């Protein structure tokens, strides 16, 4: 089991529409300094992208002396159609600005299919990276 001081820890932020639970969160502060190099997985399952966007915006676009982000933030978004992808241009700019620190993958359920020809959902998209 990964512990808060484990250098291989993974932080997962899951949006369910009304609540976005995170680990290592106290009040409105997210304490990443205690982890050496975590991967931050953000799973947008079709609702509630705002918490992820604000976290990523602050991380990649705002300049703060105390913000020295040297981790990987990986965003998975699940939407029904490409026309419902919000902030895609912003996420592309984040990738351009910090290709080693930001990844985004989309699961577009009504337009994409998996290897079996079934609709593409977030869990299927994530499973494609199981070996990483």
Mean pLDDT: 76
As a whole number of angstroms, the C-alpha radius of gyration is 15 Å
How much of the sequence lies in strands comes to 15-25%
β-strand number: 6
The secondary structure category is alpha/beta
Question: H/E order of the elements?
Answer: EEEEHEHEH
Residue runs with pLDDT of under 50 for 5 or more positions: 1-10, 15-29
Instruction: Please bin the fraction of helical residues.
Output: 10-25%
Strand order of the largest sheet: 1-4-5-6
Main beta sheet: 4 strands, parallel
- Spatial separation of the terminal alpha carbons: 18 Å
* Shape by Cα distribution: globular
Number of helical regions: 3
Describe the protein's architecture and organization.
Helix content is 20%, strand content 23%. By secondary structure, it is α/β, with parallel strands linked by helices. The protein has a four-stranded parallel sheet. Mean pLDDT is 76; it is low at 1-10 and 15-29.
Topology:
Elements: E1 10-15, E2 25-26, E3 29-30, E4 39-44, H1 50-60, E5 72-79, H2 88-97, E6 102-108, H3 122-127
Descriptive terms for the model:
alpha/beta, globular, 132 residues, 20% helix, 3 helices, 4-stranded parallel β-sheet, 6 strands, disordered N terminus
